[in-house]
Amino acid sequence: MHAMQYELTLPADYDMGVIRARVARIGHLLDGWEGLGVKTYLIRERGVNGSPVNQYAPFYLWNTVEGMNTFLWGGAFQGLSHDFGRPSVRQWTGLAYEEGGAAGSPARWALTRRQPVPDGVELAGVTADAVGEAERLARVDGAVCAAAVVDTDRWELVHFSLWTHDSPEADGDLFEVLHVSAPGRELLPQGRQW
Predict the structure, then answer these.
(1) How many separate domains does the chain show?
(2) By the 8 A CB rule, do 98 and 125 touch?
(3) Where residue 154 falls among pLDDT bands split at 50, 70, 90?
(4) Whose C-alpha in 65, 164, 185, 187 is 20 to 30 A from the C-alpha of 103?
(5) Which residues contact 178 (CB under 8 A, 6 or more apart)?
(6) What is the per-residue pLDDT across 92-105, written as a single tens digit (0 to 9) for each?
(7) What is the spatial distance between Cα 14 and Cα 51, in angstroms, rounded to a whole number?
(8) Between β-strands 59-62 and 36-44, what pairing exists: parallel, antiparallel or unpaired?
(9) Which CATH number do you get for residue 44?
């Protein structure tokens, strides 16, 4: 499993209705994308649910590198780049993925929590904790899924989870889910990724 995200932080007075309309118009285009596990079309609005910014920040869980590369290099990503400029695209290696008790239910909210991997710690312990956190989040009422991923360039863990309700029992940045494309969700390997 591979994870990917780009964040478009927009002006404070930006009409987020533009993003909502964009997703309503094109969100379905990845509903059958080969190699994609899950794409969530996420937004935060300044002043809503504690968000300091207006942001469009899709988050992806990929089953295959080929699917991810086809998306980035085969033309689909170009439309976003034309409209907003080419954003930096973060990528992470999967550590764990778990289906929640509400798997298959419509996700309304997503949480992302980033944490550094400190120097000098035993990596096996850090990754075991990350796997355990994905398992814990998936067991919480209303959890659709939970994943833990790592960027070994920045040594940063990201915990990602989807929820059916707006007050998930976890910390992180809260995003509204506008659409979910999940053509290969059932193919995402569950549990620890090594």
Answers:
(1) 1
(2) no
(3) very high
(4) 65
(5) 19, 20, 23, 24, 27, 41, 42, 43
(6) 999 999 999 999 99
(7) 14
(8) antiparallel
(9) 3.30.70.100
